[in-house]
Design brief:
The complex is a heterodimer. Chain A is built from eight helices and five strands; from the N terminus they run αβββααααααββα. Chain A is elongated, with a radius of gyration of 25 Å. Helix content of chain B is 67%, strand content 0%. Classes of the chains: A alpha+beta, B mainly alpha. Chains A and B meet through helix 1, strand 1, strand 2, helix 3 and helix 6 of A and helix 1, helix 4, helix 5, helix 6 and helix 7 of B.
């Protein structure tokens, strides 16, 4: 009787050791994955609020996107990314808005038509990894995003298909000048004009 | 090795009835989250599907909406079963994994909400024997599993590591640089870009611009988050103290950044003592005693009732009230932590006072 109790305790101990071993391996694994591929899910992690929150040498820089839709009859619709991505809940909107920022830096003329998969194991197993972002490196992906932007403009404006979209990227600088007073300045950082009928086809 | 054994098997021992109440509470929260979780995904275009490494990255298209609905139903059933403690071990695992799968779908658009502690709790505690009390499993011996404290130690370690990772990321990204005021920077981003405005944040932006104060906040945050890993070695008592500080920390985050970490707080309550709750009354209130000789149909009946109640509440209570409920958790936990801390500080003094009072009264009684 006592021996069976002892055996049971031993198996309990082994189970606990295994659980802790798995947890420690998981901590290590997630660290490696995070360093190479960004934060995985699930991961035992809390938000780092990385960087310095945009502050540098006592100034804080904020990025803002403005979307200005144009219609043939001269009508305009001026919205922020929060309104554009209203179908996403709360904080997801800001994460998705990175898609539009990427549009500013795309080498449109040298883009392939489809995603070129690398031959490494990660690409073969995790075929969907950052797929949306990788699609943006292709002509087809950009065209799909433009189609979506046109569809959104049509829906939000309620005036039929818009012909043109201007995306303005502003940088706002907040400075702690004399320690107790903050001053704000705003600068147009980049501007992108998208002609829906022309750009979607190209 | 002996020290580790002591930590894993002894330092986190708790009353298993406390753990049973915790199971009921966490079950209620999972039930609250079910049916409706991730339904917004059906309105979202698949061009934004950009999952991180994980389950959804194995696929090139988002999961169909019907699967999300099925997972929600599974979550509702398993969390209800968790509340009443029916096939607790299996249902704990199902609840955790169903919730995690829905989250995987939600987070495959670039944003990861950090509610992992809440998600992992039922998975880890499934092996603790938290279904042995205040449950239907209590009545059937074959369903009850051996009570053990290592899952509590493991869950506490997970919480500590999670907090540590946050501090580590801050440490490596310039939070301690005296030229940058990271907390202030994040306050600006949340206020002006995410439009998370609160009365406190407005006050801080307009009136608190002292660089020294902001730098001090940066340092305190990093030190607090990093120190979490050390508190694990102090056992349940020290962990409880750190969790109570964390409640204030999350309240401060909520008041300044309007970011709600109520899911974390639910995970922290693993270390709470529930002995102040009259157990037998709770048991009676949940009709569990009448279910002593429960037939197989009865648990299903209770589960259906619980889900129906959840659906009725969901339909009648406006969304705003549920967010008020989450805010209530943040405030309530801080209040509880404050009461507990006061009790810890004042308890020895109160005992001393009581002793002196008794001595004086006995002396007076003897004289007259």
């Amino acid at each position: 009787m006592q021996q069976s109790k002892k055996q049971r305790n031993m198996s309990e101990r082994k189970r606990a050791q295994l659980a802790f071993f798995i947890a420690i391996v998981a901590f290590g694994l997630q660290y490696i994955i995070s360093a190479n591929y960004g934060e995985p899910y699930p991961a035992i992690k809390m938000p780092g609020f990385k960087g310095d929150g945009g502050s540098n040498k006592q100034s804080i820089t904020l990025n803002r996107l403005k979307f200005i839709y144009h219609w043939e009859n001269g009508d305009l619709l001026n919205i922020t990314h929060l309104e554009l991505l209203s179908e996403f809940p709360g904080s997801h909107k800001h994460a998705v808005s990175h898609f539009f920022r990427k549009l500013f830096f795309l080498p449109l003329k040298q883009m392939p038509n489809e995603i070129i998969l690398k031959k490494n194991k990660t690409d073969l197993i995790f075929r969907g990894y950052k797929l949306g972002e990788r699609r943006l490196q292709t002509k087809q992906g950009v065209s799909d995003l433009l189609k979506w932007l046109r569809k959104r403009g049509k829906l939000l404006g309620g005036k039929g298909n818009p012909i043109r979209l201007e995306i303005k990227w502003y940088k706002e600088f907040w400075q702690n000048k004399d320690r107790f007073r903050l001053s704000k300045s705003k600068k147009l950082f980049k501007k992108l004009e998208l002609n829906f009928s022309k750009d979607i086809e190209n | 090795m002996k020290l580790l054994d002591l930590l894993i098997f002894e330092s986190f021992k708790t009353k298993y009835r406390d753990l049973a109440i915790y199971r009921t509470i966490i079950g209620l929260f999972f039930l609250k989250e079910s049916i409706g979780k991730g339904y917004w995904l059906k309105n979202v275009d698949s061009i934004f599907f950009s999952p991180p490494i994980g389950l959804t990255a194995l696929f090139t298209t988002p999961f169909p909406h019907s699967l999300i609905v099925i997972l929600n139903i599974v979550l509702a059933i398993s969390s209800s079963a968790l509340i009443i403690g029916w096939f607790t071990k299996a249902n704990s695992l199902i609840t955790g994994f169903a919730f995690m799968t829905i989250n995987s779908c939600m987070y495959s658009y670039g944003k990861i909400n950090h509610d992992i502690l809440f998600t992992l709790t039922p998975i880890v505690l499934a092996f603790s024997g938290w279904g042995n009390n205040l449950s239907l499993d209590k009545k059937s011996e074959h369903k009850a599993i051996k009570e053990t404290s290592w899952p509590i130690a493991l869950m506490s370690l997970i919480i500590c590591v999670a907090m540590f990772t946050s501090g580590w990321a801050k440490l490596n990204s310039g939070w301690l640089n005296p030229l940058t005021y990271s907390a202030q920077g994040h306050l600006f981003i949340n206020y002006f870009v995410h439009e998370r405005t609160t009365l406190i944040s407005e006050l801080l932006i307009n009136h608190v611009t002292s660089p020294i104060l902001w730098e001090l906040i940066d340092w305190l945050v990093v030190i607090f988050e990093l120190s979490f890993i050390l508190c694990w070695f102090g056992g349940l008592r020290l962990f409880r103290l750190w969790c109570s500080f964390a409640c204030f920390f999350h309240l401060a985050i909520f008041l300044t950044f309007k970011i709600n970490f109520s899911a974390n707080i639910i995970a922290y309550t693993i270390c709470l003592r529930y002995s102040w709750i009259p157990f037998s009354r709770v048991e009676n209130a949940l009709f569990l005693k009448t279910l002593k000789d429960a037939k197989p149909l009865n648990p299903m009946l209770i589960i259906s009732l619980l889900i129906s109640l959840k659906l009725i509440l969901q339909a009648t209570i406006p969304g705003r009230l549920t967010s008020f409920f989450n805010i209530g958790i943040i405030w309530g936990s801080s209040l509880l932590a404050l009461i507990w801390l006061c009790k810890q500080i004042l308890a020895p003094k109160l005992k001393n006072f009581q002793k002196k009072y008794r001595l004086v009264t006995s002396l007076i009684r003897d004289r007259f």
